[in-house]
Amino acid sequence: MDVIKSRWSILQIVNLGTFMSTLDVGIVNVVLPTMAEQFAAPLAQVQWVVTSYLLTMVALLPILGKWSDRMDRSKVYSYGFLVFAVGSLFAAYSPNLASMIVSRIVQGIGASMILSNSQAMVRKLFPNHEIGKALAMNAVVISIGTLSGPAVGGLLMEWADWSVLFLINVPLGLLALLCGLKWFPRDTKRGYQPLDVIGSVLLAISTSLLLLGAVYGESKGFTGTIIALYASGTVLLVLLFLYERQISHGVIDKVLYTNRGMAVGNSASLLMNVAQMSTLIPITFYMQQVLEYPTRTVGLMLALQPVFLGIASPVSGWYRDKYGAYYPTIVGASICAISMLFIIWGGGIHPIGIALHLSLFGVGMGLFQAINNAEIMSAAPPEKISLIGSMLALIRYFGMIIGIGMAVLMAGGMGASAVDPVELTGRIKGLFGAACAVCFAMVLICLLRPKEKPQAEAPTGSAKASKPL
Questions:
Q1: Any idea where the Major facilitator superfamily (MFS) profile domain is (predicted)?
Q2: Which CATH number covers residue 392?
């Protein structure tokens, strides 16, 4: 198939979906206290506005990925914008907390339709020797969305109520829907493997239980309920893997661990997300509670990580498309390990050390993340690219779940009880030592990656462009 000439313009529709999903998370977090007051509900209940959205995504991602491989994934992706916009409209006019949570579930369904196919759409649009640059551009958009979410939410709340924060998704979603239906390449070859219903249900329940354990364990620590959630989720995961070994069409596709490049990429991606989440939450808590920084200062410090990720990603993407991903991923993982030392060294935890850690970790992630994703997607069979892309997104959530559990285990629940600053400093240093070991393990895994240069070839042959831009 010929390379799609307007691929870089079409990519901006994918980037719009990425921007909407990342912007939405930051915006909603800003308005939770206001919702609690308006709905006359405790903040613990209002937290379900965020939790219901995350639970819906982790439960549906693999199911929708498998389903999209059987259908025209460009339509699944495009109509995801419509579902997300409808959920946003309902959320904006929700009269009570229950209807708000239902609206957020609808938003989560739309977001799952988008996220399960976003990596696959890039794979369809671009030849292998351009995927790195394309996903690097997407990483920059993620950085912009992550940075601007709280700021946009705060600014809008200065002159309007929280409903406007949801209403802005409606025109953006409808615009993306129309552009997607008109310009996304259509699928002409599709996979027809049967759906793995039992495996999908087991995966959905197990990941939901683990996510609930992570969300509530973050603030309460390891209570009996939290341990039960983690234990039951883990048991179901073990049963899932035992079951998946017996069938040929499982939701945990065998290509995920039998293909060397994909196995290396997915394993390293899991560890990267563990390292990021296990350190980001405790250091944020430390700046607020021990260093007593105002919210604005904490926000500026945390912004260092996505800023430097956005700077490093394009450089890494260019290098991967020209020379391969082997060396940048190793260097990126090594820089992440080195960044931990600025917290570990010395008698205390100092602002300069925090800034250096966040900046260097952002550089390491920027060098690693986009091109690691590019290697995974370029190795995926064309008839399974949506499933592989959805599992890649799910792995990020697994990394988040493990990272939060690791942080709670070593540093204690963030806000569970008052902690002596000296004791907390020691705990966090120990946690960062463990995260440094995780990053070093990631370096060793990346050494197993095949040394291959991307070939100048057309994108996957399963697509046909609908109309030129």
A1: 10-453
A2: 1.20.1250.20
